Amino acid sequence: MIVALVLSACGRAATPTPQATEAPPTQPSPPTQAPQATEEMPKFKACQVTDVGGIDDKSFNATAWKGVEEAIAEFGIEGKYLESQQQTDYEKNINAFLQEGCNVIITVGFLLGDATKAAAEANPNQPFGIVDFTYDPVVPNIRGSAYQIDQATFLAGYLAAAMTKTGKVGTYGGIQIPPVTAFMDG
Predict the structure, then answer these.
(1) Is this model's pTM higher than 0.70 or not?
(2) H helices then E strands: how many in the chain?
(3) Residues 128-154: tens digit of each pLDDT
(4) What domains lie within the chain, and their CATH numbers?
């Protein structure tokens, strides 16, 4: 039944029977002008603020930026990042992107949670995304993403334990923060 409705909506409209009418008087057409050149639509701009791990951390910052780079290549968007050297850079970098008019500001790492929330609440029409953090209660203009790292890394640890020849397995992390610790504990 639904298929029939969809197909009937795609059919041609009934053609009216032609009626004899008097031809309108012929008048010269007014001269036409070439359409005005329109400005190109501004590109979508995705802006990323890294945590102190930097853009080449081989972790969240690097993979988030890789996603932006893929969107640049596939969809022709603009992308930009600001690398935070210290935690006091978070608010400054977010504010710089607010001033720049980014379509979305992506912050990376739970350490940016407070600065991202403050900026989002002060700018309710600005979309934000944050990697490795979620809010409860939800902040309407922030899309958070967090992962249960320990579940995947448990499997890596299990594999390492099965492969060791000495009965010993070691690991190390970049900085001592909960997600890195959870990764190593996995």
Answers:
(1) no
(2) 6, 5
(3) 999 999 999 999 999 999 878 888 888
(4) 45-145 (3.40.50.2300), 149-185 (no CATH)
